[in-house]
Amino acid sequence: MNIGDRGLRLLSGLALFVVLAAILAIFGLVVVEGAGALSWRMLVEAPSSDLATGGVMPAIYGTAACTLLMTVAGVPVGVATAVYLAEYAPRRSRFATAVRAAVRILAGVPSIVFGLFGLGFFVLFVGKSIDGLFYRDAASPVFGRPALLWSSLTLAVLTLPVVIVTTEEAIRRVPRELREASYALGATQLTTIGRVVLPHARAGILTGVVLAVSRGAGEVAPILFTGVANYLPRIPTDVRDGFMHLGYHVYVLATQAPDVDRARAMVFGTVLVLLVLTFVLDAAALLLRARAHRGTRS
Amino acid sequence: MTAKIETRDLSTYYREKAALKGVTLSIPERRVTALIGPSGCGKSTFLRTLNRMHELSEGVRVTGQVYLDGEDIFAPHVDPVEVRRKVGMVFQRSNPFPKSIFENVAYGLRVAGERDRAVLERCVRESLEAAALWDEVKDRLHESALELSGGQQQRLCVARAVAVRPEVLLMDEPASALDPIATARIEELIVTLKEKYTIVLVTHSMQEARRISDQAAFLYLGEMIEVAPTLELFESPREPRTQEYLRGRFG
Amino acid sequence: MSTSRKPRRRFRRSLGERIAERALALVAASAIGAITLILVFVVREALPLFWDGHEGLALAAPHRYPNYDHPVYVWQPVGYPPKYGVVPLFVGTLKITGLAMAISTPLSLLAAIYVAELMRPRRRAWIKPIIELVAGVPSVVLGFIALTYIAGATQDLLGCTYRLNALVAAIALSLAVLPVIFTVAEDALHGVPLALREASLALGARRYQTVTRVVLPAALPGILAALVLGFGRAIGETMIVLMASGNAAVLDPSPTSSARTLTATIAAELGESPRGSEHWRVLFLLGMILLLITWALDAVGRIVVRRLARRLDPSTDEGA
Ligand SMILES: Nc1ncnc2c1ncn2[C@@H]1O[C@H](COP(=O)(O)OP(=O)(O)O)[C@@H](O)[C@H]1O
Ligand SMILES: [Mg+2]
């Protein structure tokens, strides 16, 4: 082989090898030690007060509740926006261009800034306003404090771009002939979207939702000031309560646990739970995406 | 008439499927050899085998020999890059690089190690002249090649191929994506090019093959059915399948 | 108008249809609303600094604090007096992101070249998703990995004085940025038409020549977009640097010294600062600066990418 060709192959192959080896080594180590640390108890019990023993049940619950609320609040908005962009907005309309620009900018906002926004807008503005209107006599803030609700809404805004971009792409992949067939049968635009376009784009839309859920489940910075709690052994029953969260729990255990060494098993177990959660979601998204693409090609 | 290229019992397989079956053909020097046949019969495959471009696709296997000036191009010591420098190629769809006109033509020389600006400029000019494009582009050599018209782009691709100073030019339906006027210019060009180059031309147009080729070969389902001087093949084909094909074509 | 004679109402879209379109447009506007609200509510907390006055804030120049005999660059919000010299945070941010980009750019681009140009399609089909999966790993997990594995390994290898430092954070940050750059760059490389590669090879170019002279230039806009995206992600990343960088706001260019970024500062300090205090406002100001940086990056990146694309192909569509 030519020396230049050999150089290219060697250099780029080495880079890929380093990347893959690093990924495998690191995640292999985490998974092995995590699997050793993880136990049934960890999944179903609440943590001890020094966090070093017990389980992470409240954090699992909090993560799930927060992500669920986020999905309920964000996905409909995202899908509706995507439907508007793909089906209604004229190709070159100013409004659509502005919406797309906003989505792109939103996607680039650092997650900690979402935290500031959630605190400044949801907690201190919306929450405090509600308190001022309805809970004037309450001794302590009811809505105007960090809470599950505000964290979820902050994350809903953060994941909005993922949902919009993926859904719009999925809708645009729906073959024109399908729409035309529907119109030719006298269906209105709304009916066509509801009965033909959205069902056909289902896998693609679901990809976006799953990606958003995965992203939302793993983000910590946006919830730091908007609702997450250090230690809250009971399961929150009200969206106005604070909550524990797997990602935040990892942060606390790894950096602030009173006895880091004693908490080592806990932190590995928690990391593994979080890692498995996001891996499963992302892998599902990849599979769904592959299916969505295959569906339109055939 | 000496043979520039000879293939002997040449077969090409895509995985297990044979696209060429034992083709033996002699391609005379400084002549135009036209390959005709229904689409999918293996014309492009044959062409790509002649300069080892087939090796770029996955799962392709070749048996038999191709001799270029009597030397087997598949011999173990032969560098495919050297083969391609001698056997140039023009593709069905023009594919200029997203670079300037000048850089497109100079590309083959640059990758061969030519650095001398004066040499490059002279060669670019000669190649563009040879491709009958010089007059149209001489004032905008440094503009993007993608701004040329379709026909101009295809002639640029010819100039680019010629610039490497190959001995053979393989042309795979070079005019099939062009309008009649641009097609006529390409045909003229091929006729002038055969003074210096051995040309193998794939075409789906019987008239084109008739107008500009010296020898014609009819391929069918990967087999070489008949080879003859062009006039002979069109006027008095010997093989029944050739007759049928020509008749079907001319209605 | 020729249509004016038709009975207008007959072919008009139903009221429901028209309401639906308006409603959807309204919802779509929420993206614009969100970005506006973010700006407004971050700025709202920060701006009073500029009319209510501030004591210790120093955005660019060194500041002379009481009891200091010369102006200094210091970030020390809990000192007396509190000192909000932002320059050390800029330096820390630049140091860590610069290092992370220096690590991840060559690795990810070379790996992308291998996967797009030299790898068999079948193998490519499963190696790409593996790397993409890493892009979804929560940054807190990467921060944890930095603490548990990377910190020890770098200390053993380089003998750093501090276990946690800019390099440790940068390595972990590379893990976050690398898959992003890789995926986008690989898509760009893979998207270069096969016809261009064939043209190059048919002209007697070697594979490496084809890659460096045809494929890379043609994919350059996409590659650049990948780098801009990666850089944006690196600057905005919080948890990794918060956990791994050591967080000392020092003015030290050494990669193995500690560093404190804008993001980590907000994350670490906002919880302890009383609402409406100067400290609180300065932290929101940092958020505002972060917003502006990422916007500027995005805007500059887009302009450069579009210019490049147009230079490669002057017929490129404006809006693309
Ligand atoms: N890359 C490929 N992989 C598999 N089969 C191929 C490939 N290229 C061509 N073939 C098959 O080989 C046969 C000959 O194709 P081709 O040489 O392109 O024919 P022509 O140029 O005469 O139209 C066809 O049946 C085609 O389907
Ligand atoms: Mg063909």
UniProtKB/TrEMBL annotation, chain A:
<dbReference type="GO" id="GO:0005886">
    <property type="term" value="C:plasma membrane"/>
</dbReference>
<feature type="transmembrane region" description="Helical">
    <location>
        <begin position="147"/>
        <end position="166"/>
    </location>
</feature>
<keyword id="KW-1133">Transmembrane helix</keyword>
<dbReference type="InterPro" id="IPR035906">
    <property type="entry name" value="MetI-like_sf"/>
</dbReference>
<keyword id="KW-1003">Cell membrane</keyword>
<feature type="transmembrane region" description="Helical">
    <location>
        <begin position="105"/>
        <end position="127"/>
    </location>
</feature>
<dbReference type="GO" id="GO:0035435">
    <property type="term" value="P:phosphate ion transmembrane transport"/>
</dbReference>
<dbReference type="Pfam" id="PF00528">
    <property type="entry name" value="BPD_transp_1"/>
</dbReference>
<protein>
    <recommendedName>
        <fullName>Phosphate transport system permease protein PstA</fullName>
    </recommendedName>
</protein>
<keyword id="KW-0812">Transmembrane</keyword>
<dbReference type="GO" id="GO:0005315">
    <property type="term" value="F:phosphate transmembrane transporter activity"/>
</dbReference>
<dbReference type="InterPro" id="IPR005672">
    <property type="entry name" value="Phosphate_PstA"/>
</dbReference>
<dbReference type="InterPro" id="IPR000515">
    <property type="entry name" value="MetI-like"/>
</dbReference>
<feature type="domain" description="ABC transmembrane type-1">
    <location>
        <begin position="60"/>
        <end position="285"/>
    </location>
</feature>
<comment type="similarity">
    <text>Belongs to the binding-protein-dependent transport system permease family. CysTW subfamily.</text>
</comment>
UniProtKB/TrEMBL annotation, chain B:
<keyword id="KW-0813">Transport</keyword>
<feature type="domain" description="ABC transporter">
    <location>
        <begin position="5"/>
        <end position="246"/>
    </location>
</feature>
<dbReference type="InterPro" id="IPR003593">
    <property type="entry name" value="AAA+_ATPase"/>
</dbReference>
<protein>
    <submittedName>
        <fullName>Phosphate ABC transporter ATP-binding protein</fullName>
    </submittedName>
</protein>
<dbReference type="InterPro" id="IPR003439">
    <property type="entry name" value="ABC_transporter-like_ATP-bd"/>
</dbReference>
<dbReference type="InterPro" id="IPR017871">
    <property type="entry name" value="ABC_transporter-like_CS"/>
</dbReference>
<dbReference type="Pfam" id="PF00005">
    <property type="entry name" value="ABC_tran"/>
</dbReference>
<dbReference type="InterPro" id="IPR027417">
    <property type="entry name" value="P-loop_NTPase"/>
</dbReference>
<dbReference type="GO" id="GO:0005315">
    <property type="term" value="F:phosphate transmembrane transporter activity"/>
</dbReference>
<dbReference type="GO" id="GO:0016020">
    <property type="term" value="C:membrane"/>
</dbReference>
<dbReference type="GO" id="GO:0005524">
    <property type="term" value="F:ATP binding"/>
</dbReference>
<dbReference type="InterPro" id="IPR005670">
    <property type="entry name" value="PstB-like"/>
</dbReference>
<keyword id="KW-0067">ATP-binding</keyword>
<dbReference type="GO" id="GO:0016887">
    <property type="term" value="F:ATP hydrolysis activity"/>
</dbReference>
<keyword id="KW-0592">Phosphate transport</keyword>
From TrEMBL, chain C:
<keyword id="KW-1133">Transmembrane helix</keyword>
<feature type="transmembrane region" description="Helical">
    <location>
        <begin position="164"/>
        <end position="185"/>
    </location>
</feature>
<keyword id="KW-0812">Transmembrane</keyword>
<dbReference type="GO" id="GO:0005315">
    <property type="term" value="F:phosphate transmembrane transporter activity"/>
</dbReference>
<dbReference type="InterPro" id="IPR035906">
    <property type="entry name" value="MetI-like_sf"/>
</dbReference>
<keyword id="KW-1003">Cell membrane</keyword>
<comment type="similarity">
    <text>Belongs to the binding-protein-dependent transport system permease family. CysTW subfamily.</text>
</comment>
<comment type="function">
    <text>Part of the binding-protein-dependent transport system for phosphate; probably responsible for the translocation of the substrate across the membrane.</text>
</comment>
<feature type="transmembrane region" description="Helical">
    <location>
        <begin position="21"/>
        <end position="43"/>
    </location>
</feature>
<feature type="transmembrane region" description="Helical">
    <location>
        <begin position="214"/>
        <end position="235"/>
    </location>
</feature>
<protein>
    <recommendedName>
        <fullName>Phosphate transport system permease protein</fullName>
    </recommendedName>
</protein>
<feature type="transmembrane region" description="Helical">
    <location>
        <begin position="96"/>
        <end position="118"/>
    </location>
</feature>
<feature type="transmembrane region" description="Helical">
    <location>
        <begin position="130"/>
        <end position="152"/>
    </location>
</feature>
<dbReference type="Pfam" id="PF00528">
    <property type="entry name" value="BPD_transp_1"/>
</dbReference>
<feature type="transmembrane region" description="Helical">
    <location>
        <begin position="282"/>
        <end position="305"/>
    </location>
</feature>
